[in-house]
Design brief:
The chain is mostly helical. It is built from 7 helices and 2 strands.
């Protein structure tokens, strides 16, 4: 196995382990899944949030996000409002209960990330790791793929 394959396998296995740990904690403490936390965190952060904004930030389809927002809305954590600047879309906002649950979930997330990353790696290594991930995410891999095809 090449070093890149090993890195990829380690990255994916680690991501799954951390996701599962955070998800299990949120489910047990808040009856919230990471699948709902992620769009809720975008809704809570983006002013005049639309389904499109969530889809872009999470890198998933607008149709998938719309279904997620439907489920989050059914749980009472968000609501759709008319978009005054575009009648074709809605704005999505957290309800007061959604804000409360999101804040508690963010604390649980931070605590788990501290357990999985912060207690294991020195601050400098964490900054380098974060910078490396940001650089990889920002790379225009689509253009490279098209050029080599």
């Amino acid at each position: 196995m090449s070093d890149l394959s090993r890195i990829f396998n380690d990255l994916i296995r680690f991501e799954i382990a951390v996701w599962d740990a955070v998800d299990a904690r949120m489910k047990s403490e808040l009856s919230l899944t990471m699948t709902h936390y992620e769009p809720m965190s975008v809704i809570g952060r983006v002013p005049d949030c639309r389904v499109h904004d969530i889809a872009v930030e999470l890198g998933i389809t607008a149709g998938g996000v719309s279904k997620l927002v439907d489920r989050i809305e059914a749980s009472g954590y968000c609501r759709r409002l008319p978009n005054p600047s575009d009648r074709r879309s809605s704005l999505v906002e957290l309800t007061p209960e959604g804000e409360r649950v999101l804040a508690a979930a963010a604390e649980a997330l931070e605590d788990e990330l501290e357990r999985w990353l912060g207690r294991v790696l020195p601050e400098r290594t964490l900054r380098q790791f974060g910078s490396t991930l940001a650089r990889l995410r920002a790379a225009d891999h689509g253009a490279e793929t098209e050029a080599t095809a």
